[in-house]
Amino acid sequence: MNTFKIYIIALFSICCTLSAQQTPAPIQTTTVAIKGATAHVGNGSVIENSLIVFERGTLQYVGQMESGKLNSQMNIIEAKGKHVYPGFIIPNSTLGLIEIDAVRASDDDEEIGTWNPHIRSLIAYNTESKVVETMRPNGVLMAQITPRGGRISGTSSVVQLDAWNWEDAVVKIDDGIHMNWPSTFSRGRWWLGEDPGLKVNEKYNGQIQELDSYFNNAKVHNADATPGLNLPFEAMKDIFEGDQTLFIHVDDEKGIIDAVNFKKQHDIAKVVLVGAYEAYKQTDLLKNHGVSVLLRRVHSRPNKSDEDYDLPFKLAKKLVDGGVLVALEASGDMERMNSRNLPFYAGTTVSYGLSKEEALQLITLNAAKILGIEARYGSLEIGKSATLFISKGDALDMRTNQLEHAFIDGRNISLESHQTKLWKRYSNKYKNQ
Amino acid sequence: MGLLCAFIGHTQDYFPKNDGVHSKATNYTAITNAKIYITPTNVIENGTLLIKDGVIINSGKNISIPQNSELIDAKGGSIYPSFIDLYSNFGVEKPKRKSGGGATPQYGPSREGFYWNDHVRPEQNAVDVLKFDKKTAKSMLKEGFGVVNTHLEDGIVRGSGALVALDIEGSDAKRILSGRSAQYLSFSKSVLSRQSYPTSIMGAMALLRQLYLDANWYKNENHNTTDRSIEAFNKNADLVQIMAAGSRVNAVRADDVGDQFDIQYILLGGGDEYERINTIKNTNAAFIIPVNFPKPYDVENSFLADKLELESMKEWNQRPTNPKILAEHNITFALTTHGLKSVKEFKAKIKNAIDHGLSITKALEALTTVPAQLLNNNKIGTLKNGSFANFTITSGAFFKSETTVYEHWIRGSRTIFEDLNSKNLNGTYTFDLNKQKYTLEVTGTRGKPKAKLKADSLNLSCNLKQDQDWAHLLFTSKDTLQQQFMRFSAKIDKGNPNLNGTINFANGSTQKLTLIKSDKQAKKKAKKDKKETKEKTILPVTYPNGAYGFTALPEPKTILFQNATVWTNEDEGVLLNTDVLVKDGKIAAIGNNLKARKANVVDATGKHLTSGIVDEHSHIAAASINEAGQNSSAEVSIEDVVDADDVDIYRNLSGGVTTIQILHGSANPIGGRSALIKLKWGESAKNLIYKNAPKFIKFALGENVKQSNWGSYSRFPQTRMGVEQMYMDYFSRAKAYDQKKKSGQPYRADNEMEVLAEILNKERFISCHSYIQSEINMLMKVAEKFDFNINTFTHILEGYKLADKMKTHGAGASTFSDWWAYKYEVNDAIPYNAAILNNVGVVTAINSDDAEMSRRLNQEAAKAVKYGGASEEDAWKMVTLNPAKLLHIDDRVGSIKVGKDADLVLWNDHPLSIYAKAEKTLIEGVTYFDIERDQQLRENIKNERNTLIQMMLKEKNKGMKTQAVKVKKKQEMHCDTLDHNQI
User: Fold this and answer.
1) Would you call A344 and B981 a contact, using CB atoms and an 8 Å cutoff?
2) Is any Cβ of chain B less than 8 angstroms from the Cβ of A162?
3) Residue B874: phi, psi to the nearest 5?
4) Each residue of B855-904: pLDDT tens digit?
5) Are A47 and A63 in contact (CB under 8 A)?
6) What is the CATH number of domain B620-892?
7) Are B648 and A254 inside 8 Å of each other by CB?
8) What is the per-residue pLDDT across A154-164, written as a single tens digit (0 to 9) for each?
9) ipTM of the assembly?
10) Superfamily name with CATH number, domain B105-346
């Protein structure tokens, strides 16, 4: 009875969001010029006193300020002393798949079953999510929506975060398949009275064999398959043909070595490691095999008590120094609402060795490259999408991250949210008292 | 294998006898020619022990032996008093947890006429369920144990134990030396009941405290019900009280409970006492110490080895030194077999402890005189005249690996393991046969030889058996093509080292043969033993004893920070190019061009100096967070479970945090009391806790206390409506309680009511977990009805909706910067909350409730600037001065002001910036975190890890048994965390 009530409440809340959501911005019709800002291109370079011009969603000019490029038809934004960045990209995200963690009716991130390559996140992505709209005011404008669970969790897609429907949101459909690599350690079942600590996973080798067998079978199935008879295997086809990326979620060093071998053995062209806590110990291996990394949440604690207290803060620097292509992800506890802190995860890597522009790449161009959308997104370069924002100050520092305008494909999007509405409403309550 | 030999079982004099005539034992037994340990320090060389009827009559070098004495020649062996194990469950089966049930928690008791909590079981008597277990008894006798203090190992109060002599042949009438030998207690619940309470150690401590109060009330006052548990508990009060604490931290906790009621428990330790030996010493308790030293880890696989924590490796390395360190600090302790997989491991473990410096005398005392004294029993533990004749006869010094236990006597019953007359055949023998030279190497123990036979350098298969005074050797010929078996038998001659016998060949012919003994082997081995002892590397104990511990605690220093940007949090605001002098743990001066003799000068040019961060809502550094067994748990206190060894303390220091309030969780509308601590890394738990600090308690509202997300539907309250009524009920009762108490009438002391009365009397403040405006307003109204104030609403995510009402009420706010969306009630949580509250004039803090975020609270404060536009100084106060105000410690901390505690942080950049790092964190003038020293600590960790891994590899290489790598995982604690360490 009570459970039922909770679901009713949950449904009600989701209905409420429909009316609260910001209206997606219309297609760009007027050419926009941003004048005088410091442009952080996203590829490592910075243009002081820049001019950025975009038309019908595409960047026409990015360079030094040249008044000759301006005309009266343009919407000219004065941005002297301000900063322009490419839209930040959050990979390996469950945004829009869960609205409220504790309300089961609002959870759509994890299907039952072990082998789910055919499960597609995109169709469950809720563009009306109240959480999603809170990303934009911090500069997070794109996300890779990723399913969870199982050995193979399913297929992700890349979306932009201002849309009427998932079909309008999608930037790259079914970009990759996500797989959870077996753990070297397994946790004691404390509820059965076992020590809650970690013990060596005795089943590890068997689990690897299962994976091998699954991939072998998927491959041969696709060599001679009548479509529709085995949806999971068919969903794997593009992995073998190099058109889709295999995202392997793995943290420990041995797992990482085994995963890279797995790539070789099954001849998979595109492999990205996700989490990859100990990837810093194997940078040469990753570099040599062209394996890139979506690095686990920077703001986390070390796995072990005797590790450097700042190890999670400096992992990005170690990977960059080792020549690995790396971007940041944020999965874990409270991951969706915390994803708006992505710029500050990057900011932290600056205190631990990276330059600000290198740190920026971790959440822009590198992410775009890893997700395969770098032709259109990830940096402020002529011909690319005008997905960018203007901040009053350094956007990687919460002290100065203050967005004034944001554009997705040239569309001037709203920076309001359910939260800013409440802020204004209650600020007025006290003003009027 | 041993031969059992019993004296005639004498029945009691007053028993009728219908199967013959009464025969009274009148003979003596005299064991001669022995080294007799009357006590570990009173030793008779080559003496005689005279016993009769199971009792020691006399001992000495030249005592007179009555004519009716049976004589036993110990032939130079040694006689030791039987060992005593004070902590045993011998013969008392441990109950098994019932399967099934359990989906819905059980809050009430299962029994009637007993205490309200099923886990209090003082009415249990081990003797009632004792089933003498001969097999176990014999294995214990073999290891020297003759008396065990056994008990029913189940429950928080476990009832009375029984002192049992391991007399295999006798009857329970003789074996049971006492049916009420001690009362046993623990912090672990009974498996016989599913009653929820307590779910935590602090709950178990509170339960015991209340039990003592209730027992006293029951004893002194009229009561109109019968409580068989309390009656038994009161009856057991005169017994020795043995508390199964099981670790050094729990030992201190148990001792605290005992001290409050003038009870000195004997404490079962954990083998880790050496880690904080002075704290252990301060308990003044006697200890029962296990010797289950960990095996080395199998670190051959370097990937797995990497996962192993330094702390675990150090345990392996250091634990064998525990008994020695206890002895060095004059702590009274007995040793126990508890925790060993098999009692057979015991001797080797003691030998290991001795190799690590424990004196043999102390080891023997810990097994004989000490446990006897702890039980106030003068009949056991020594071989003084009048004691029970409980002793072993051994071939020599007890703990030497080659020593054999020949016999164990218990009250006259004699168990023989090896014939006293049998000979040890160990050594190297040579013989010639068919022009071949054979070498036989014998190892093993008396009666159980192991043999290796070589012809030239070729190993031959062979089997050597010793049967009393005969040796039989079976071996094969050297010729592998046509293998032949040969048998050799020799009568063992004690006077002759060689074996003279006859060999039978395959063809049936026989021949006389002598195996000639040489004595090379023995010497070689003795040398090796010595060498090993010398090589032992023991890593130094650090405080704490895991990673980043200090070998010596840092001292307070006089420190002069020069030319810093100083965030005073006072009217002066942020001062540029300013000096701050720290002296005697206080802020001594703030100004320009300050000078101080002998001060450590820190050039802070370009750096920012702030007061230390205060986290109003933390769950680090605690062994448990929620006592979820009841809807009110005011009786529990986090102060009981502070964990001073949590590495998150160090990590918090690295983020500039100096003071935290460890709050109870949010499982109950009325939670538990807080611990307010300073993060003095390395100090003991007690030294972390603020002295004379204001008192706090956690309350909670909303989904957690309604158990909305736990699938539990049986506990009141299930709605916000019920929450209000629960408060009304508890405060009304507390008021009545307090009035009765103040009136001078007799009253039943109730710790829960005492705490609630403190709230009514404005002696304790509430910090209330809260989200939704309706219930926040409700709690303020409840408080107003009882004429007190809610001090702090913590989380308070909808505080912005009723900031005006909070201000009027006088409540403060401690909130998250930007958390939301994790449950239904935080749907309207907004990051602008702190700024709005602050604007309205509510004292506003930003807290963590999270071990990761707490080390970046400076960044969380910055979000109050980003969201809602608070000024930078106001934002900074939200993590320093404002929480200090909320905690009523702003007279000591929270700002940089002369006379306040020198709790300071030196930042390399603007403290609200993502780019800022804490370089030094001071508490009361002591630099607990220093970014440069941290580099050195990292180096130490690396070196210690490498040393230990090399040592463990060496052990494995030597053939020592190893254990698989395991990783201790500390549970991450939040408000709604239920302990995984079930008690």
Assistant:
1) no
2) no
3) -60, -45
4) 999 999 999 999 999 999 999 999 999 999 999 999 999 999 999 999 99
5) yes
6) 3.20.20.140
7) no
8) 999 999 999 99
9) 0.94
10) Metal-dependent hydrolases (3.20.20.140)
